[in-house]
Amino acid sequence: MEQYLPLILSAVGGTVLGPIISKLTGGSGAGGILGGIIGGIAAHYGLDAANVQVLGDAAAGATAPMNIVNSLAEGGVGGGVLGLIAGMLVRSRG
After folding, report:
1. With left for phi above 0 and alpha for psi between -120 and 50, is residue 51 left, alpha or beta?
2. Whether 32 contacts 83, CB under 8 Å
3. Cβ contacts of residue 27 below 8 Å, gap of 6+?
4. Please, what's the largest Cα pairwise distance for the chain?
């Protein structure tokens, strides 16, 4: 279960920030939630593939407090970006 914790936390971070950013840009809440989840997971995998650790220490384990904050921040940023894009697309169509 510990190997899935960063992925779950990234999705949660994106789920929180994605709809907020989407609503601020005129998009829908549902699009922001979906964009947040997908963006959070994508940011986690992208940063992991690039071997970028924003906060925390990779050797400390997934349950270290700074690694939990790192996963939430990664998801929040990725979800916010995709929520922003989703909000702009919905606004331009409507």
Report:
1. left
2. yes
3. 83, 86, 87, 88, 89, 90, 91
4. 48
Residue identified by tokens 């270290």 is 64
Per-residue pLDDT of 63-92, as tens digits, reads 778 888 888 888 888 888 887 787 777 766
Q: Hey, what amino acid is at 42?
A: A
pTM for this structure? 0.77
SS3 49: helix
The tokens describing 62, both together, are 């997934």
Output the six-digit token pair for 35. 């964009």
Q: Which of 5, 18, 27, 6 is nearest to 76 (CA)?
A: 18
Short-list 43, 35, 6, CA closest to 18 = 35
Here the contacts of 52-58 (C-beta below 8 Å, separation 24 or greater) are none
Q: How many CA atoms lie within 13 A of 53 on its CB side?
A: 12
